[in-house]
Design a protein that fits this description.
Distance between the termini: 51 Å
Strand content: 5-15%
Oligomer: single chain
Radius of gyration: 25 Å
Low-confidence stretches: none
Mean pLDDT: 95
Number of domains: 3
CATH topology of the largest domain: Rossmann fold
Shape: globular
Bound molecules: iron/sulfur cluster
CATH class of the largest domain: Alpha Beta
Helix content: 25-40%
CATH architecture of the largest domain: 3-Layer(aba) Sandwich
Strand order of the largest sheet: 2-1-7-5-6
Length: about 575
């Protein structure tokens, strides 16, 4: 342990700790725009580029960046001297003098870390007459919007994309003032290997990287009296939406959310968790077939479009590995426009399906040419948790003051198994609850596969299916996915079933979730809330969902049958999609 003082207060920390981390131990928050640490996923951005965290260290002539200065015994640090505050203000002024003054219309306004810090440090910048960045805005993708003029070169996105996700879509180009973080050759994002996981959006401190918003299109649909507008909400949204209304992280706002959506004017409010249960029936059928025949193993889950994009780009030869089931978002959309439309006597062409997702990649998925049935799109617009909060606020709806309501029927009933899709390991756990009972014919008494749960990296287990044992793994974060796939390809490891989610920790940490200041704590709280809902649900196995049973009995026929295939399965490596992913 090393003992030092910060602003006269003594603190002891392990060797290797930085001044910034030591200050956190004293509950002192040294400002920074570039540093970011997510302990649970072992991620750290420590490039010391913003120079806002500078501090004085006794005996040193120059100010030191707290994020990159390791503690030494007897060190005396001052964080709030006149010299420090003036240097921080000057550095902020320099950053802001090269920033577009568009805060009023910026999609990140009120949540921008640069904006908040400028206010906290009372930064006064006269409109600069000097040279400023002027780069083309990048509207090229259906999921991600880039405004390079708002980039402050903190490099968080680069670390996230290259080191955590191992995608390598963003990197710094140029020298000095002309430096820009962009896809290779300053191409548009659509021409890069970006898989739209949205993790860069979650960590970008400014509005330089933002999810493509479909709020205006959703309002237009709601105001169009010729349309029936149906909404579906993903499991992870209900444990995060409350944060936008002042609730603590992990507050479960399911009923209030359903009520708020109804007040916005949606004709029906459905739960994507129903689609998650449906995914388990279809995917479970595939798992049982491949596992019992001992063929085409391992089978990989297919409900995360960020992950599916990753395998399309980096492992196209493994085309046969993922399940062919659509994601819960797309399944729910397809069932709304077929089964529900038929029940209601509505023409599917007049239905607009809006999905509320924790995810940026789902925007891309909804736009894909292969995600439609008979020329009718499964999902028309996908908005994020953040975008829903914005719509509710625009519509004068404060979740804190509205009574809870239920989802509509028949796509509103769900089980705990569907809910846990929201957290890493949940899809596999949900599948195992069904697969176990179908294969063994026995009741699964303990449904909690706790070994597969967790925000960090990879989890694996061996599951006894009566006469057969299977080896399974749940992996989140694309860097972890790459590691496990490389081992599978080389033959170093053998698995029967693997769940992969692009976002570290799964959808609770999706790129469309509310921005979190204390990310480690927030993710933990959201995850606990997901398992709390599951634990208290009266139904915890997807195949026990009565509305799913009725759907097969009255409409779909057999799981994995003809009709189910037409509506609920997709060729993920279809030519219409693969064009975009081909590379030299
Ligand atoms: S969305 Fe994901 S893959 Fe695309 S640039 Fe951001 S971090 Fe990289
Ligand atoms: S795009 Fe955002 S996260 Fe990336 S370097 Fe620029 S400001 Fe930082
Ligand atoms: S893990 Fe969830 S939020 Fe992240 S890309 Fe996949 S589906 Fe979207």
């Amino acid at each position: 342990m090393i003992t030092l003082t910060i602003d006269g207060q003594e603190v002891s920390v392990p060797e290797g700790t930085t001044v910034l981390q030591a200050a956190e131990k004293l509950h002192m928050k040294i400002p920074t725009l570039c540093y970011l640490s997510l302990e649970q996923i072992h991620y750290k951005n420590q490039v010391a580029s913003c120079r806002v965290c500078v501090v004085e260290v006794e005996g040193r002539r120059n100010l030191a960046p707290a994020c990159a200065t390791p503690v030494v015994p007897g060190m005396k640090v001052i964080t709030n001297s006149k010299r420090v505050l003036s240097a921080r203000r000057k550095n902020l002024e320099l950053i802001i003098s090269n920033h577009p003054f568009t805060c009023l219309t910026c999609l990140k306004s009120t949540e921008c870390e640069l904006q908040t810090m400028a206010w906290e440090y009372d930064v006064q910048v006269k409109y600069p007459n000097g040279e400023r960045m002027r780069h083309k805005k990048d509207h090229s993708s259906a999921a991600l919007f880039r405004d390079p003029d708002k980039c402050i070169m903190c490099r968080r996105c680069e670390t996230m994309c290259n080191e955590v996700q191992t995608v390598g879509a963003l990197t710094a180009f140029g020298r000095g003032f002309a430096t820009i973080v962009a896809p290779a050759e300053k191409n548009e994002i659509v021409d890069s290997p970006c898989v739209y996981c949205g993790q860069c959006v979650s960590v970008c401190p400014t509005g330089a990287l933002i999810g493509h918003s479909y709020v205006n299109q959703t309002w237009s649909a709601l105001f169009d009296k010729t349309k029936k507008v149906v909404v579906q909400v993903a499991p992870a949204v209900r444990v995060a939406l409350g944060e936008e209304f002042g609730y603590p992280a992990g507050e479960i706002v399911t009923g209030k959310m359903a009520a708020g959506l109804r007040r916005l004017g949606f004709d029906a409010v459905f739960d994507t968790t129903f689609g998650a249960d449906l995914t388990i029936i279809e995917e479970g059928t595939e798992i049982i077939e491949r596992v019992t025949k001992n063929e085409n193993l391992p089978i990989l889950t297919s409900c995360c479009p960020g992950w599916i994009n990753f395998i399309r780009y980096y492992y196209p030869s493994l085309e046969w590995m993922p399940s062919t089931t659509k994601s819960p978002q797309q399944m729910t959309g397809a069932i709304i426009k077929s089964y529900y439309a038929e029940k209601m006597g509505w023409d599917p062409k007049d239905i607009v399906v809006v999905s509320v997702m924790p995810c940026i990649a789902k925007k891309y998925e909804a736009s894909l040419p292969n995600q439609e049935v008979n020329g009718i799109r499964d999902v028309d617009y996908s908005i994020t948790t953040r975008e829903l909060a914005k719509m509710l606020k625009e519509g004068s709806i404060d979740l804190r003051y509205i009574p809870e309501e239920d989802f509509d029927s028949p796509l509103g009933e769900s089980t705990g198994a569907g809910i846990i899709f929201g957290s890493a390991g949940g899809v596999l756990e949900a599948a195992l609850r069904t697969v176990y009972e179908k294969v063994t014919g026995e009741t699964l008494e303990n449904v909690d596969f706790v070994a597969l749960r967790g925000i960090d990296g990879a989890h694996e287990a061996t599951i006894d299916l009566g006469e057969k044992q299977i080896r399974v793994a749940a992996v989140s974060g694309l860097g972890n996915a790459r590691q496990i796939l490389d081992k599978v390809v080389s033959g170093e490891e053998k698995y029967d079933v693997i769940e992969i989610m692009a976002c570290p920790g799964g959808c609770i940490n999706g790129g469309g979730q509310p921005y979190a200041k204390e990310r480690d704590k927030v993710l933990k709280a959201r995850m606990e809330a997901i398992y709390q809902i599951d634990k208290t649900d009266t139904l915890r196995k997807s195949h026990e969902n009565p509305e799913i049973i009725a759907l097969y009995d009255t409409f779909l026929g057999e799981p994995g049958g003809h009709k189910a295939h037409d509506l609920l399965h997709v060729k993920n490596f279809d030519e219409s999609v693969m064009g975009e992913w081909e590379h030299d």
